[in-house]
Fold each of these.
Amino acid sequence: MMLTINNLQARVGDKAILRGINLSVKAGEVHAIMGPNGSGKSTLASVLTGREDYEVTGGDVTFNGKDLLSLSAEDRAREGIFLAFQYPVEIPGVSTVNFMKTALNQIREYRGEQALDAVAFLARMKEKMKLVEIDQSLLSRSLNEGFSGGEKKRNEIFQMAMLEPKLAILDETDSGLDIDALRIVATGVNKLRTPQNATIVVTHYQRLLDYIVPDFVHVLYQGRIVKSGGRDLALQLEEKGYDWIKAEAAAV
Amino acid sequence: MNTQEAIELPDSKTESYRFTPIARELARLFDLTTTAESTAPIEYQPHLLPLTGVHNLVFINGKLTEGKSLPWVKVSDDVHTENGLDAFAKLNYSQQEETVSISIPQGTAPGVLCIYYVLTGKANVIAHPRIALSAGPDTEWLILEKAISLANSPTFLNRQCTVSLAPYARLSWVQIQSDRADSFQVNNTEFRVAEKAKFNSYTLSTSGAMIRNNLSVRIVGSEAEAHLFGLYALSGKTHVDNHTVADHEQPNALSNELYKGILADQSKAVFNGKIFVRQLAQKTNAFQSNRNIILSDAATIHTKPQLEIWADDVKCSHGCTAGQLDDEAMFYLRSRGISEGKAKSLLLHAFATEVFESLSHQGIRSVVDEILEGRLNTIA
């Protein structure tokens, strides 16, 4: 098992957001986490990647045999976890190229590998740029500054391609994308799929799952996974909305 | 040398020194009525910046020692009679008879002049160098200044500079303030910028005990341009006070000021930016910005813009901010595998580099970048 989440609970201030999440992800799988607004989807993504705004109050998470929650955000990334942000941050004065060079070499150092030289780095960049149809001029500019919504999301997938994570968590990657941008992003993600890595797609809408086809769909509601199923579940949600899930949860 | 009468330095009751008790500190550590006598020859060469193809002037304890033979450098005795000098200028004149005049005549090829102030001795190490520089019409020079304390006790550099730019002159002025933690500085600098001249000032402060920079730019010709850049990146108990003045006396000119600060530990910074636009100075563009990142609860910044505008057809703006490193940006960088320390220094570097973007001389730029990089790596 790559990732095992066991009874995970977390809160912000006094407010409990995750109230006992259980989930297992194997290499090669794609899991979709769906749910109405405020159900805890983005919190789950944040807690897994080490955002410090949340306090974990119970449960544990094992990632490739390691206790994930005891690791810093950067060490989780170095172990192979990647978060594609719902709102990628604009950082004036730092180019994507410089950012990726720094990140890649810090990850390699952690793994006891040699830093990439300029030529190897450039070659890798060129190859990954094609994958997400992103232009080099964009990557030389300040990170995400003045990028369109689509460019920001493509840049996220470009970074994912560069870092080759074992587990990618896509947080509402479809939000704010038109259909063409969505297709490019999804194609990039699909090309990066291998039997060795896994993907968690966090999304409110079914739309993205037409392109990134999940093996499992989980519905999160009030901080718990209240229903799991195959791809059909996503289609059902698309058709019927979330109210029946809420009603079912209330009946339990 | 002795003074006839004691000069009273501005204390905290003086508004412009309210946050910078330098008089008290100096009184505690120095006897300001005397100056260190010249000492035995000192090995200062290894402490100069690694630059080639530049001219050097070296002052030792306020006296010009190296560079006297440059054709456009002249040393003269000078008694100042002008009224309205500030107390530090008076102190400088009372302790130093020598004025070093540098006149770069029209037709001189572009060049770089590095001025070093070496302070050395066993006790009461004080230097009062004084420079008058004029950049001739259409000349293009870069002047760099740096203090080097080689003493085994606290040092005090009280340097005076008056600089005039002739029409069409292009002058860049770089001050690197990265001296020892027990070094004190007062730098009084006045620039007069004539018609269509272009002036750039860069002040980089990274260490020292207490530094006060009084930097004023008088626009005395129309269509002149002055850009004032400053960066202070401080830790420990370093205290840096930048008081700047952009005084527009003539029309159609531009002044643009950008000072940025990074404050760690118990460091303290003061920024006071005055802009005057006189009645004659119509069509003036005057901009000012002071932005600060505070890395510690114990660090402080006092920032204050002061605008006095008598002309009616002008564009002026000012703004100041003080904040912390952006948490979202920090998490974004760390989520890609970058360590907290490295993420901090990346963000600080991104914040700081804007200040030196227009510094085009490659050699000087890499010196500045290296000092800055070293500073930001240790501050983060």
Amino acid sequence: MARIFAYIVHKAGVADDSAAQLAAAAKKMDPAASPTALLTGWGADLSAACDAIRDSYAEIWTISNEALAYPNAELIRKALIKVVPPGSIVLVAHEHFGIDLAPGLSIKLNSTFVSDVLDIAGIDGSDLKVVRQEFGGQVSAHVRCDISSGAVVTVRPGAFKPLEGTPVAATVVDKSSEVGALTAGRRYLETIVAEAGDVDITKHNVLVSIGRGIQKQENVAIAQELAEAMGAAVSCSRPVVDAKWLGKSRQVGSSGKTVKPKVYLACGISGSFQHLAGLKGSPFLIAINKNPRAPIFQVADVGIVDDILEFLPELTNKVREMRSVAAK
Amino acid sequence: MRGIRAVASVPIPTFGVSDLGIDPGAVGQAAAKVKRVDYFVPALGKGAEMLKGSREENVDKVLELVAAKGGLK
């Protein structure tokens, strides 16, 4: 079995949740594997991110370079091809950054590219069998990948639950000297902070999140009533914003906001990877959807097949009832 | 409309792999490193614990779970 690496995304010294998920994916691929984390960056942020993943990886390779202070996939790709041994398997989170990094990395490493993997079905010789979703998640497919010359695999966020177990004491190996000077055709200019909306959904512990299943703007009030009763906020997936039923500041996902609530009620949300990419911190995810085949049920903790337009008002009434009993 | 009519009779060339200077053995199904084996319908809620009770029972259960997870202020 080839050596397995996991590229770790981090920001301001905080490792992305996908760090532990990629370790779990590597173990599913090869239970005997001891995956190595790849961390690129600069200064205190890199050190902090390194400390944050010590529990998940036995070995961490760091590449410290001022040019990598901002995660420019073009530069990181150039750095990785200098240190990753030929024939390796590199796991990357299937998020906007991973989608930027991974395809070109596989070309440069002359290895197989496999995107948006939800599960590992097994390994047979030099063939890796994975599960991917097709047709908007309505059907899944077993896909066989020739990994004899290595592979770059992007893994859907949330698809692999972090492993529980004894923390490992990581060995940190500094690979910076193997990389040398880095230049790229694109460069970081500035970060544009998104405008704050009426409600900051990133600050709430409970989110009642609605998707296309809410059907029309008038029905948004059903979710708002529930959120109000629960002391939560209403968030949404992209179709709701596209339809202008809620503002952009309420959108969760790769093109919206990243949230870390304790509880996330996904109401009428199919569960695209773009939406799930905005969900961090492993919240308790309750999915309500009338489509029993909705992909959200593959990653939720609890699922209910029901019509949200009927289920949510009943839940709201029950919460109010409970509140009034508690107030007496 | 006139533009559509004008291009309707223009021949569209069809190129083969060899016309493009590509090794036929390096492309197509035979050379693909990633191949779909089969399609299947995923098990319902493989990842989720599916609540199978009546709506009222499910509402109660959701409320209980949300409260247990610290989701009710």
Amino acid sequence: MSASYPPLSRKITNVVMLALTGFCTLLVLSVLLTILGYLLWKGASSLNIAFFTKIPAPVGQSGGGVENAIVGTLKLLALASAIGVPIGLLGGIYLSEFAGGWSAFTIRYTTDLLNGVPSVVMGIFVYTLVVLPMHHFSTLAGGVALGIMMIPIALRSTEDFLRAVPRSLREGGLALGASKSETIFTIVIPAAIYGIITGIMLDIARVAGETAPLLFTAFGNLYNSPGWLQPTSSLPVVIYNYAISPYDVWHKQAWAAGFVLLSGLLVISIISRLILARGKKLSHG
Amino acid sequence: MSNAVLATPEVPFESRGLDKKQTWWERLRKGDEVVHLITLAGGWSILVITGLLVQHLWVYSRLSRHAFGWHFLVDSTWDPVNGVFGAWPFVYGTVVTSLLALTIAIPIGLGSAIFLAELAPRKLSNALTFLIELLAAVPSVIYGLIGIFLLIPVLFNVVPYVQKYFGWIPIFNGTFYGVSYFSASIVLAIMVVPFIISISREVLISVPVSQREAMMALGATKWDVTWRAVVPYARQGIMGSIFLSLARALGETMAVTMVIGNVAQVSTSLMAPGYTIAAVIANEFTEATGDLYLHALIELGLVLFVVTMIFNALARLLMLTMKGHEVVG
Amino acid sequence: MKPFDLSQLSRAHEVRFAADESTDEKLPWPQFTVAALNFFYGTHQALKGINLIVPNKRVMAFIGPSGCGKTTLLRTFNRMNETIPGTRVEGSIRLGDKDLFSFPATRLRRVVGMVFQKPSPFPKSIFDNVAYGLRLDPSIRRREIADKVEQSLRRAALWDEVKDKLHQSANGISGGQQQRLCIARALAVEPEVLLLDEPCSALDPISTAKIEDLLFEIKNSCTIVIVTHNMLQAARVADYVGFFLNGELIELNRAKQIFQNPEMQQTQDYITGRFG
């Protein structure tokens, strides 16, 4: 083999193509940084105290805030968790500890499919399920929509983390006279708890930004929404409505709301990763 | 030897509690059946919800299905006032924006995945992948916000130059209003790129070393090895990631609604405003007056559901059949 | 209770195990009496017609090459095999004079404790590990638990090493300590039998020696059945040794006898290393 192998043309292709892949990565990263940077700049400059403490001001007036939307989002997420987390946990336990054969396969596959249902379709579903019978939009309907959307991820991540618990721990429990269910609740779940919590927090962060299913379930509200059966405002819907409005004051509010929403999500995501790291550290001494 | 006498136990077994009758409380506490049943209910509720979802979409779209049949998909008149509903402009817009988005996203995504899997040191690669996956966590509505206030102003500066030189090509001509198929496609491309990168990277990383070494032994360059050995070996997983991204692009709602213009027309030019299925549902659902109108919108949801399910199922199938490699996401 | 008679066993003549005929020593009463035991993983038969007696408060070791069925038999004594789907057991095992399979498995496992090959402390504190079995029984009072934990740790010769860090994670101690913790955990519920499945195979020689010392202490109050790969270990700790090959019990005899003058050719081959 001569020293000039591979031929020059192939060497050039090599360098050019490898450089191109690097360029692609750079491009994606710069888009990411631009988005985050722009949001940070626009959002932070539009923030003030009133944003958190006041409800929206009438059109044309400056000032006002989105306190009702922040409260609305928190209420929606609480309700969604109350629905999605228990079902996801139970289903995850079932898949990892009890189900076998076709039953496990069917549930797993259906869960993955449900996870892929476009959020706007989920909105339609909950509209026909909750809003039509009740004849009006409500926090309840929005919470149900987000709750159903939470189930697939809560279920699959719970299953994955439970599965990762070694068989030796389960046998250790059984050998001490614990029943299967006692082993699950006192050994397997505690051993996987950090992972499960992380999965659920990321799941909450994911649905917190959902907008489409809320448009026709929670709808929106210019004022505070008492109780659970009235339409409610929420951060994502506020961002949408303000962004497509013609008023500059509202655009500023949209940026501020986007900034608050994304910061919230990033904080949740970072905290949950810390929890996972702490769990790993604990279980390895 | 068979008659050897053995001593009796000093402690009779009764005293060990082994023979004691089980109380109902012990039965319940130790009982696995109850836990089994409760968790089973949790698992099966997934099937119930999915069943209900399909049933509701089917039942609540019946008026429209009966009135228009399959013509619903190909008629291009969407006239709520006169009760005529044809979904072609939305179907067209959905297909065009999704395909264009993938055309942009696939090379960039695959290129980045190759860089992150094959070239970058593992530590750097992990850190960058973490950042890129953050991109996937940004809510759709925020992409819309960025699209309206950052992307479209930029496009206003760029598109005139494109039209000056390429305006004779039908897909580039016409007046540019900012909102357009093109803007929507770019936003969609940015949204699906993280999916393609993170799944493809994992698939590429899992390609066995033997595949690379075989090529390297033949004197191949790094690029040759990657392009002719690694990528073909991983193509199933890469296809899977593309189908998953396609399903996501088809069903994406908010970001598209905010930048596509929401005009129910079919245009050859990518610079013209249009509409997608998801966008029309988001815009008109709460304003739908009359049952036929509502049912027509729900039928659009049904169409969207069926199409995204097909691509999701395909993607899952592709990834399932990849030996020993499972991607959850 | 009637005294046991080996003739109660079906095919008792196959039990190659008896009192030394030269002495008047009475055999200890049998902890386990196994008769015509077959065990299947799906269609694979892992145990073939096993008959044997495990004497009370003695150490019995099972030796043999991997896959010979010794661990399977051990796991049948506390019915751990039942947790593996697709397994089937035929024949009879008696615990004392009662059918082993007539008890609820969860209760049986408190009487027949087990320690596994790989140390498997729960990801909890050292104290909680030992207290785990005690807390499963609501009749044991809170105050008793602390005492029993200390007592068990002392029996497992671990107390002095961990008494200052009882509430730290059990994953933080060494492998040998973890295995002794697992023994303490099993001893805490005061089992009558302790099953050990190659308890030292993952440990260094010093930790192994500690555990072997421990077994001598425990055997005053516990019947011990130990599965081991290590013939020297069997020779050191066991009173009786059973040699298994391909799912069959080839020979069961006093340890001294089996290592010095085995009856069967296969046993001779194995202990002289001709099986590898």
